[in-house]
């Protein structure tokens, strides 16, 4: 054992230089988020994960001290592997080098390579004995300001008639972000945001920005594992009862089906809805972790009245936009109070948790009175309970959760990931969410927009015949027992994906993907009776990247999207892009650029593609109509402390005279956005 | 009764649904073209050369749980020095309403170490009380090739002469070509089939078998046209093998099957 460790150590020293060269943050985010992006708003904020990854790059996780939580936060490391790491440490003693991870089962070499920049061995840590002066002198400050704007004027800014809907603020977007870190265990975070169209020190935003968010976070101080005052996110179990912040679902990484709960975390994203505000802490009593939490915050809601004339809300707002008089009027319409407790017991490879919490809103929630809402939540308060587990044994990882909203329905998830053979892994995932299951913070894996009114079975396989080849196949069959938006009958559907990737070590890769989706929707034809018909979507994607040299990489993709709905003309959309990425090992300037051509006959055959952006900003814009897309991102480092990013992106469409509709309408055939971002670290 | 007949018509419309497949292949998504064993009598007859001792099997399948549509099958495989002989009989139908019986006689022979060929002659009888009784004959041919490392490629042509019951009878004898491949990894068997029905669209299926120890194995699969999921398990106990399988049709529901075979 000692000898082999020594060899590993030498190998580590030799290899560390090459392996540490480049962080795969962008690549990781793309892989983790691509399939959910289609269900989210175009500018959904993925920065939380980017920030977390970057943080762990600067403060790598100590393999000799972690209890697994930090590794879980990275979101791409399977729990099975984390358990193996902890067991390895217990059995063979402390790690000497990070490359020892290669000897541990449960992680592909590709993913291991992605993990290496985020881990280290042996760094000392403790906040005890730290005084205020040291906090000020030795901590790191990070201030970032971002400005963005659409160059062309949208319709909403032109309207001056005060009786009409219009944008009350300016088209500028402003985002400011401050972080203070003292080592890996103390963090102060502050986010401030103004969206395009929102006021700034005017109107409803008389205190400046439209959205403020902040938190103080301490962890790993004796019994106190985590504590947050301010905005925080809770993630427990499989997300059926309580999950804030970003969650992932189905993706080309099969382990995405397992929700890797990170427990209590400070909330640092700029999304304005998915978080709690107040205080929470996780305290350890031996193997038991107890997390009490309390939150009080206001949320947007569409105002309405009950039959008795009492004020109520019909739906809680999800966008966080306050640009028009209506949006401003709905701002903070509801006050929400949440309190509860989570308990989790951990013993080696086994975790069992239980949670209970209560959500109370000051105005009753009263969704629109239509048949599809028959089982939706109504009222002022809701109590939720949940029990969850996960366990790993040899090559098998089992997980599940059962959640119940008191007085209404249940939701269940159970699944496993098993490595049947060193080259073959299998994932199975069964979900059953009753139509009357309710939770305000439910983000279980689902085909629909929330984990309710759905049953499904997912099976996936990953086959690695060699290091160079990876083949992923999954099939997800699902059923909606009750009506849904635009589907006026119980319905069912299928989602099948197959992807083959070939990688030339450190040089290039190519991936071919086919995805087939079938769902039901209301027939668009005028029929004597209401009927639902099948909607089929097929996607073919061929993409790859090639590393020209140490500084230059090119990337290209061809994608076809086919849409067919009974009674409608089918659509075939296409998109081709080419990216050029410049990232020298040293040097102040780096950047990337894209040119893309696309043609889609309609909105239904739209194509989504991941775009690079300034740091911490990512986008998945949709490409539709005929035209050209191009963007350039540049980053320049002024010394060690200051970075500046610039972005220019534009869509030029062919054959149309206006872009968008309603208040977003732009006259002409071009939409361009500029963004500038500055960061100081001191 | 009308409802049941309706379901039956619905199923028979997809001509492949009438093809009976043994429980272990059913659990692996109907992939059997490149697999071997007694149940090759219900798939590629060339796979019969994998039977080393006299083997008998009976199985029972329920179609779509709630309906009384069932299949019963009895199989016998006799390996000899000349080659492997097989006898198979299966009956598909609804009690006192519809009855399709198939009896086949098969022969498979190994040529050298890598190649085998199989041939089946089949007698089909269709009986609908107070309406119709008719019969027909068809053949199946198949071949398997061992590529090394346990990989097998198989080709199976069912009913190449496109035999029918007659012009005026609503009942088909499916005619199709299947191309399959199987590959063993330690403890795992992966199998893929592509099927081209002479009347219909190209389909595919995929299956995995995973052995847990020497006694139990788990199976799963996926097949298209229509898209269905499959699962099952097998238990070996002394000379007996019990196989259970289920196919999950997204609209029509679950079709379970059990089979018991005995090696003399």
UniProtKB/TrEMBL annotation, chain A:
Domain of life: Bacteria
Signal peptide annotation: 1-21
Keywords: Signal
Keyword Signal: yes
Protein name according to UniProt: Helix-hairpin-helix motif-containing protein
TrEMBL record, chain B:
Record's signal peptide: 1-17
Keywords linked to the UniProt accession: Signal
Highest taxon listed in the record's lineage: Bacteria
Name of this protein: PorV/PorQ family protein
Organism: Parapedobacter luteus
Upper classification of the organism: Bacteria, Pseudomonadati, Bacteroidota, Sphingobacteriia, Sphingobacteriales
